[in-house]
TrEMBL record:
Swiss-Prot/TrEMBL keywords: Oxidoreductase
Oxidoreductase found in the keyword field: yes
Protein name: Nitroreductase family protein
Family: Belongs to the nitroreductase family.
Record organism: Paenibacillus baimaensis
Record-annotated Nitroreductase domain positions: 31-78, 87-170
Length: 204
């Protein structure tokens, strides 16, 4: 229990109120969550590149590194991204100073299918999110966007799969959100560990 107390002492007060791990983990994993309120504070080029660098060092099958990151940071670039977000997500993500579309090449260098492209890109996104948190930034991955429109707007090949748009920036005041979103602006919980861990085979 002393290890768990140490974890909670290092977690933010906001996280302590909503997240209680069953076993001690590094506070980084608890402190990372997905806010929707973003401030207008810009993200430095150094910090943006550090976040992308961390993502780029994720593990990948055969070191194929299938992930691709389309970055929008200027007003012109962001307007293109805003256009292919669904309306609900545009309502809050349009305030984020950086948007990153995570895609992956479904083919290996020799043209064979890469069955691990999505799995590897998920690892890259996880690394991106954790590095962002270490820099005091927040992220929120968005699945609600029009993929065909994004593909056309960004000239993305048909052999690349589009996974998510990631909002990146500094956390803002939840009062800037629509009223219906304010109550949801808090760290969520997790299922009990024994619901997701299967020892040996599944008993049916």
């Amino acid at each position: 229990m002393s290890d768990q107390r140490t974890v909670f002492e290092q977690a933010t007060e906001e996280v302590q109120a909503h997240r209680k791990p069953e076993y001690p983990v590094t506070p980084l994993f608890l402190n990372r969550w997905s806010p929707r309120a973003y401030s207008d504070q810009p993200v430095s080029e150094q910090d943006l590149n550090t976040v992308l660098e961390a993502a780029h060092w994720a593990p990948s099958s055969f070191n194929d590194q299938p992930w691709r990151f389309f970055v929008a940071k200027t007003d012109e670039q962001l307007a293109v991204f805003h256009d292919f977000l669904v309306e609900f997500n545009r309502s809050w993500a349009s305030k984020a100073p950086v948007l990153i579309l995570v895609a992956s090449d479904t083919k290996r260098g020799n043209g064979d299918p890469n069955g691990a492209h999505a799995f590897d890109s998920g690892a890259a996104w996880g690394s991106l999110a954790l590095q962002a948190k270490l820099l005091g930034l927040v992220t929120h991955a968005i699945g609600g966007f029009v993929r065909d429109q994004a593909r056309t707007a960004l000239n993305i090949p048909d052999t690349w799969e589009l996974h998510a748009v990631v909002a990146l920036g500094y956390q803002g005041d939840k009062l800037t959100l629509a009223e219906g979103l304010r109550e949801r602006e808090l760290p969520n919980t997790r299922r009990p560990l024994n619901e997701v861990v299967i020892e040996g085979k599944l008993n049916v």
